[in-house]
User: What shape does this take?
Amino acid sequence: MSELIDVIVVGAGPAGLQAAVHAVRKKASVLILGRPHKSAIYWAHVENYLCVDGVTDGKDLLAVGKAQASRFGAQFVEEDVLGIEQLDAHYEVRTESALFAGRTVILATGTSKNKLKVKGEKELTGRGVSYCVDCDANFFRNAKVAVVGNESAAADGALTLLKYASEVHLIADKSAIAGELAVKLAESNVVVHETWVREIVGENSVEKLLLEDGSTLDVEGVFIELGAKGAMELATNLGVQLDMETFSYIDTNKRQETNLPGVYAAGDIAGPPLQMAKAVGEGCVAGWYAANFANKQKRQDAAD
Assistant: This one.
């Protein structure tokens, strides 16, 4: 096991990188664990972030952020975290090939989106296939689009897309949409198909969907909204408290502190809105307070 690190950041997306920048600038040793390409923003086109002029690829922003954090002194290990354990006054973080010990941990893993796992999905991701209506709706103005999903995330996404697209289809074979949202959907111009997607077709971009009922749907974009599968296993195994209403994200205070001393959370894993601006802001706060916590611990250790 390596020496005690002040701040271990789990996640290499906007929240994690910003947390690292602020923590290391406060004279804390910082280790970032994770792979940037697993961040949701990596595949996104960004145009609604302050000081970004025009459309910028998320992967380019992350590359700049990683270089910035490295320049300030943060260290990187591009491996997935397999487990986190609390031991006395520190935390042990286990990756694919190593074990690290930290005074504090910042959980900034984001949320991983469920995949359809159909032919054409992977190949056309970023070329008409999207997992975020809020991020990419603007790129489909006056286009024909489809949303795939049975739950509230899909219905809400379809209703949002009505403000942009010329035609919106919802593919839902076993709808679990109820209440006011179901009424809004029924009264809207969203075309609902009670079937499922068999294949996404296109050469350089999405052209059409092949559906399980044998029909074909010509669309330019498809939004896969199967609900965000939160990266919660690490947190819950550690004993981190989730929000009491939906149990789908980590509960934090204004300092991004969780219920465990020295454990912070920032970005998508800390709840909506799932936007880069929020992730960066929370990363700043988490990095600041995690570094303060670690530095205070070091002073106490030196005094003992």
Notes: Residues 4-112+228-303 form a domain with the FAD/NAD(P)-binding domain fold (CATH 3.50.50.60). The two ends are 24 Å apart (CA to CA).
